Amino acid sequence: MKIFDTLQRRKVEFEPIEPGKVGIYVCGPTVYNLIHIGNARPMIVFDTFRRYLEYKGYDVNYVSNFTDVDDKIIKAANEEGVSASDISEKYIAECKKDMSDLNIKPATHHPQATKEIDGMIRMIQKLIDNGHAYVAADGTVYFSVETDEGYGKLSHKDMNEMMSGLRDLKVSGEEQKRNANDFVLWKPKKEGEPFWESPWCEGRPGWHIECSVMSQKYIGDTVDIHCGGEDLIFPHHENEIAQSECATGKPFCKYWMHNGFLKINNEKMSKSLGNFFTVRDITAQYDPMVLRLFILSAQYRTPLNFSKELMEQTKASYERILNCTDKLKELSAVCASKPYSDAENEAAAQAEGFVREFENAMEDDNNTANAETAVFEIVRLANSTVNGDSSAEYVAYMLEVIRKLCDGVLGVISDRRADSLDTEIEELIAKRQEARKARDFKTADAIRDQLTAMGIILEDTREGVKWKKA
Ligand code: AMP
Ligand code: ZN
Description:
Radius of gyration: 27 Å
Number of helices: 15
Largest sheet: 4 strands, parallel
Strand order of the largest sheet: 4-3-9-10
Oligomer: single chain
Bound molecules: adenosine monophosphate, zinc ion
C-alpha cells in the first residue's frame, strides 16, 4: 500500500512499525462551537483510511484528541457567562453527534487536553532539563527552536530564511523570546482564565504540546501515521516534531498524511472567514451519507470545492445506491435458491474485478474517488443482472459485495432509507397507540391517515399492531 508522506514529499510504501498493528493520531477539533464541513473532511477521510486498514486485517489504534482549552473556548465561555469546561463539554457532545451521524467510528481513544496536564508538565520539564526550553521572567516556558537541528523539516522551511524575515521582537511585544520562532509550551494565567499549578507559574499549556503528549501516551514514542489538515503542517506539526524528538531522542512519526482543504468559491472554508456551513446545516437538508459520499468523491489531498449543485448530484448518486440495495433486498426474499447461471458466474467474476479496482484505488494513497467509481460500477452491474429469475445466492452475493465496500470501507450506509423509514413508521405507530390509550381517537385516526398516505397498512392483531407496505 502506498501513501503520500508529507515529510519525504513523495508516495512511499506503507510498512507499520510493528507487523499487523497501526497507531494513527489525528489532530481533532477545538471545541467552542459546532464543527463545519471543512473540519469533517479529515474526520471522514482518515476514518475511511482506518476502515480500509481494518478491512486488510490490521489492528488499528486510532487516537484523535479534542482541544478543550484555548483562547476561543475561553472567549465563548466569557460571552455566555459559563465556564470553559461547560463550553467544551457541550461541543464535544455535539461533535460526537455529528460524527455518529456521519458514521465516523469512535476513536480507540479520544483524549482531552485538560485531562492530560500532568503529562504535559512532565514533558515540558524534560525539555527544560535537556536544554531545549527556557523559562522567561513571567513564567512563560518557550521551546528554543535553535536547539533543534531538524526544525523546519516537515514544512520544508529553511531556518536561515526564517531568521532573515524576523519581526522586531520589541515591537511585537515578544522581547522575552530568544528567537521569534520559539513557541509557547506553558503560559501564565490571565484574569478569568482556567489554570493549573506548575513548577513555573499558575497557567495553562500551549496548543502544540498536547498532541505530543497524548500521542506518546496512547500510541508510543513513535507513531505510525500522524494525520491532519494541511494547515496544521506549520507551525503545529513542525512544533510537535520538535518537542517530541527533543524529549525522546526518537523519531516522532513514521509517516505524515495531510488532507487538502474543503473550499467554497475556491476559498478555504473557515470559521474566521465566516464562509462555512456546519455539519448540522447540511444534515438538516441532506442525508449525512450524501455529505460523506461527497467528501470522499475527491482524493483526500486535492482541494474540494463545495457547492449545492455538487451536493444535488451526489444526492442522486446516493439514491442510485439505495435503489439498488432496495431492489436486491426485495429480490432476495422472492428469488429461488439455485446454482449461479453462466451469466451470473460471468457477472460475479466482473464484480470481483471491480473489488480489485476498489482495493487498488485504496492502496494508491487512499484514493476514495476511484474507490467510489468502482462501487458505482458494481451497482450498475447489479442493476443490469438481477431480476426475479436470479439465483437467490447471486442476489445475496451482490448485496454482500456492496455492503463490504460501500458500508464497510467507505462508511456510506447503503440501505439506510429502508431503516430510517422503518423507524419513522414505528415511531408513528407508537404515537398512535399512546393516543388510543388516552382515548384521543382524533389524533389516533389522523396518524392512521398519515400512515395510509405513506402507503402503510396497519393491522390490529392480538400480539399488537402489525404493519406492511401497501
Ligand atoms: P480546527 O478546529 O480549526 O483546529 O480544525 C480541526 C481540523 O480540521 C484540522 O485538522 C484542520 O486542518 C481541519 N480543517 C479546518 N478547516 C478545513 C477545511 N476548510 N478543509 C479541510 N480541513 C480543514
Ligand atoms: Zn495536533
